[in-house]
Design a protein that fits this description.
It is a single chain. This protein is mostly helical. The protein has 18 helices and no strands.
Length: 392
């Protein structure tokens, strides 16, 4: 069981590896290919849109094939896409690769999150997403090294090697899932499949959708545009911007790790509240006209505070909605999280195109307010339904 948990952690490194590559590589990519900087939003929109589709329909696929097989196959899909990016001759070739990358990511995210939420403690959910933070921290570092030596294509190739190794580990570990004490006779617990319309009729589901959309919009707005903001507004070089993005993702990893440590000392809702409290002053730092190093510090604390909100909300899913429908709600939550991922970069692109990149911190502040208001309304709704569980 312990080794299976380690495998799941490593699989989440694989989920994180592709997510931060495009943001750290883009200043070099758009220069080499002579395409507008805003074109990054096309790729992120496609990746996120396909992740949304994959997450929406994940419950049926996961119930039929099982988490282990879906995770292994989906990780292989993302590895293939990363290799494709490393050799793509033009921007247009990247578009079908983005489709493959998005479809693979959605299935991994939905399956592993629900599996851990059902079978493991809250600390493991935070550590799981901490390992996602390891993946997204590793990528900008690898890319910064490649940019100073062999170029952005080498960075994608390094990431492919990591992803290919994780795929091999997942394939080798398939028998472990059948031996797991969390499943019986090799079969995972089957849940009730709810349609999107059935879930949309529930106010509490709609509220959690907004929370997940906003927290991930903040995460990805920083991940995709943080480096470009530092280069364009604060005078950083491309490799410096990529390295600074590593600091942001390191903050996310630290936030999730510390939240896991605190899980035995305080309940999940309190840890979510602490994350929101850390996030507020970090956004204020970004809003102020301070030197570039202050912006890097602000990004670190945004990662630190926002990083723990997503995994803790994910962990609460079976408690908030019931175990029997948790896979359906989990898939929809992750789908809306990726709608936030999908909308944030083009939103930043559109508004910064009109008002300049200096407007970027204001957008982060607006997303923060939306998330906090939705979170407060969600808690009120849960209390009315006697589902506000302070024992987890």
């Amino acid at each position: 069981m312990v080794f299976l948990l380690v495998v799941i952690y490593i699989a989440f490194i694989g989920l994180g590896v592709p997510d931060s590559l495009i943001g750290s590589a883009w200043p070099a990519v758009h220069t080499e290919m002579s395409i507008p900087v805003e074109a990054v939003s096309v790729l992120t929109f496609i990746i996120s849109g396909c992740t949304v589709l994959s997450s929406m329909f994940s419950a049926g696929i996961l119930n039929k094939l099982g988490t282990a097989k879906v995770t292994a196959f989906s990780t292989a899909m993302t590895a293939a896409a990363l290799f494709g990016f490393s050799v793509a001759p033009t921007f247009w070739v990247m578009i079908p690769l983005a489709v493959i990358l998005g479809l693979g990511a959605g299935a991994i995210d939905s399956g592993l999150n629900n599996y851990v939420a059902l079978h493991f403690k809250a600390s493991h959910m935070n550590y799981l997403h901490c390992f996602y933070g390891v993946g997204v921290s590793l990528s900008p570092y690898l890319m910064s090294q490649a940019l100073s030596d062999i170029g952005w294509r080498g960075g994608y190739r390094y990431a492919f090697y990591v992803q290919a190794a994780i795929t091999l580990l997942l394939i080798i570990s398939l028998p472990l899932w059948k031996k797991s004490t969390s499943v019986e006779q090799g079969e995972e617990e089957k849940g009730v499949n709810l349609t999107l319309l059935q879930m949309a009729k529930k106010p509490e589901v709609r509220q959690v959708w907004i929370i997940m959309l906003a927290t991930n919009a903040i995460e990805y707005a920083c991940g995709v545009w943080g480096s470009t903001y530092l280069v364009a507004e604060k005078g950083f070089e491309a490799e410096q911007g990529a390295l600074a993005l590593t600091v942001y993702y390191a903050g996310m990893s630290v936030g999730r790790f510390v939240s896991g440590l605190l899980s035995n000392k305080m309940n999940t809702w309190k840890r979510i509240g602490i994350g929101c409290a850390i996030l507020a002053p970090a956004v204020v730092v970004m809003l102020l006209p301070l030197p570039g190093v202050a912006a890097v510090i602000g990004l670190f604390f945004i990662g630190l505070g926002n990083g723990s909100i997503y995994p803790n909300m994910i962990h609460l899913t079976p408690h908030n909605f019931g175990k029997e429908v948790s896979q359906s709600v989990m898939g929809s939550q992750i789908a809306f999280a990726y709608i936030g991922v999908m909308l944030a970069p083009p939103m930043v692109s559109l508004i910064s195109g009109l008002f300049g990149i200096k407007i970027y911190p204001v957008l982060l502040a607006v997303l923060y307010v939306i998330m906090v208001v939705a979170l407060k309304l969600f808690i009120i709704r849960l209390k009315k339904q006697n589902r506000y569980d302070t024992n987890v």
